[in-house]
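Project channel, design review

CF: Before we commit to the Arcticibacter tournemirensis constructs, I'd like one complete example in the thread so the newer folks can see what an input/output pair looks like. Taking RagB/SusD family nutrient uptake outer membrane protein.
RD: sounds good, go ahead.
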Amino acid sequence: MKVRSIIFIAITSVMLSACDDFLSPEQVDLVYNEVFWASEKDAEQALLGGYSLYRGLMVGGQMYERGDVTTGYFNRGWNGGSSEAFYHFPNFSNVNGTQKSWGALQSYADWGGYYKVIAQLNMVIRHVSEMKDDLFSGDKKNQILGEAYFLRALIYYHLATIWGAVPVTLDAIENSDQVIDGESVPVYKGRSTETEVMDQVLADIGEAVGRLPFGTPGSAGWGIRANRGSALALSGYANLWMAFIKKRDGQDPSQFTQAAVKALEEVVQKGRYSLVSYSSAENVKNMFRGKSAEAVFEISISYAQGESYRADAGGIQALTCKLVPLDGDVTKDRASNINWIPYLKKSFVYPEYPQDKRSTLFFSAWDSEYNEPFSDVSQVSTDRNKVTWMTKFATFMVDPAREWNEYVAYFADCNIPVFRFTDVKLLLAEAYVKSGQDNLARPIVDEIRQRAGLQTYTGSNLLQEILQQRTSDLIGEGKLFFDYVRNDYFPDPASAMTADRYAQKGYYWPVSGNTLINNKLVKQTPYWNGKTTW
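CF: and here is what came back for RagB/SusD family nutrient uptake outer membrane protein:
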């Protein structure tokens, strides 16, 4: 991937740059801190290193691949896009080595990148906590710690929803005795239970909420730095995931459902967020460009700030966006190289089309009836203008340093949403229904529907309608598959998530072969035993 430049690079002494897998102790370098943690600037740089690592982990389409492609609504193009194994994934046993490398399947089963971020944040939390208060201006120490706790909670939440039971490590690794015992044997850490992982997520969220103020709309950090609203939004998600685990395991989930309601109500009432109008395509474009009134938390992707990447080479844009060729030759627009939505899947996304204006605000050519990918050699799908592709992230800047023969040389120029206000409001509606407060959920649903050009909801299954609105509004933002798991809701009869697979927790990902080899205490995710080739 061609990278213009990346800010938020941490100082070498806190980056653990040689650590390919934090939970493989033999790979951890020693880190020397005696001369580093001496000022507010040092602490801020270390925290920004955590943001940088998280950003680097997510810009490759992680959330989109796991949260959207796995629903089966998107198919890969004739010549590119996501691997079919993401949406036809009963097992990986028929995926040979070449395809695994090409489709990055085993890399998606590798949690090492997540633990790199955790390692950085563990160091920030430990050392900033130990620094004297008079080294910081105002409440800056609490701010830095609050953001670090939020990011660590967010990473563990990702791990919990992707793999379920994962190792929990809170130590800052600073000497070899922590990873190699007296007999020169690596110190391994096995998988904690799902509940233990979520307990840690909720504990870190509590630390973050207690330290962070709400953000200020229009400020430099609005949306891209964690604040109290971000932490409370994550609290809503984490509590509903814990409620899902408790209910699945035959326990009372009400404590966590009520906690989700409380957290999300505070975001809505005090966070100073508001819904963006869908009255024009420009409004929507500006919302996804970033730092809008809906920006609860998002990953900064800005050409002007030096935080971008070539859209033709990687990121969610390379998976989802056509690009206008700079030489005017439309045959170079990548129409056969991107994910698209076939006609037979469209009713799951916008069942009230054409009344639903999101179909044309978020997608190009929604009226296309193609069920096969466009290709210049196709016998059926012959018009590149009828490829139904997602436009949410289609904001670019031309690369001024492009080569003469680079015809789609663009930098991405829109943020990647992690939480936005629409998401928070619909999640609150879900929590209301699960706590027996349908009367409070219905106005939220109607507000979202009316913004999309639809009439108020008159049906009887309010939770299903909430999930439909989340599908229609949040598609492409990494949420849907996890929504469906949390609610045991898979509306497509062709979904790979059968009832039997769901009962076996087959919604969790396998663990990569590298991790299984390097960490002897980690066992394969039970559903995947015998189903992988690594």
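RD: helpful, thanks. Strands lie at 295-299, 363-364, 389-390, 396-398, 410-412, 416-420.
CF: Confidence is low (pLDDT under 50) at residues 1-32, 98-103.
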